Amino acid sequence: MKKLTHLDKNGAARMVDISRKDATVREAKAEAVIVLSRAAFKAALSGNAKKGDVLAAARVAGIMAAKKTSELIPLCHPIALAKATVEIEAVKKRHAIRILASAKTTGQTGVEMEALTAASIAALTIYDMVKAIDRGAVIESVRLLAKSGGKSGTYAAPAR
Prior knowledge:
Strand content: 25-35%
Oligomer: single chain
Distance between the termini: 26 Å
Structural class: alpha+beta
Number of helices: 4
Order of helices and strands: EHHHEEHEE
Number of strands: 5
Low-confidence stretches: none
Radius of gyration: 17 Å
Mean pLDDT: 93
Largest sheet: 5 strands, antiparallel
């Protein structure tokens, strides 16, 4: 069984020492899916919802969140991101919005948390922008899709 790297030998939380790791190109992709009512879905896609352009706000919020991940997740290292993107897809049959976030750096630690944070905050922003129409909107999943670089190698999530 692998040990948890953020715990010391006594079980206390700690920030992992990455000072001896080589800087390598690291990239991660994550997704979040939010399911909306028909009315909220229509408003989100319209670009002119009561609070403004829902999808534009979600994209910007996700990118900003990726840059602030170490301020939100206590044991994350501050990372100089080379790239952060948030793409949004409408899943019309389900009245859902799929958020695809990516993060990239050349550094000593991975960017999985940055991609996951971007996807999560983009989904929360969509909820915030449409909650007047649909308080029952559900963020049904947030997951890592892929990562590459670093000592632990690559990861690709199984298809769903």
